[in-house]
Amino acid sequence: MTPVKMEDEKTHIIPYRTFLYVLALLITLTLTSVAITQLYLGALTVTIALVIAVVKSSFVLRIFMHLKFENKIFSIAVIAVVCILSLVILITLLDYLYR
Amino acid sequence: MSATTETHRDDLASKTGMWLFLFTEMLLFGGLFVVYSVYRYRNPVAFHLAAHELSVFIGTANTIILLTSSSTIAMSITAIQKNNKKLALFLLGITVLLGLAFLVNKYFEWGEHIREHIYPGSPVLALRGNGDVLFYGLYFFMTGLHALHIIIGLIFIGFVSVKLFRDKISYDNYSLLENSGLYWHLVDLIWIFLFPLFYLIT
Question: ipTM score of the complex?
Answer without folding.
Answer: 0.91
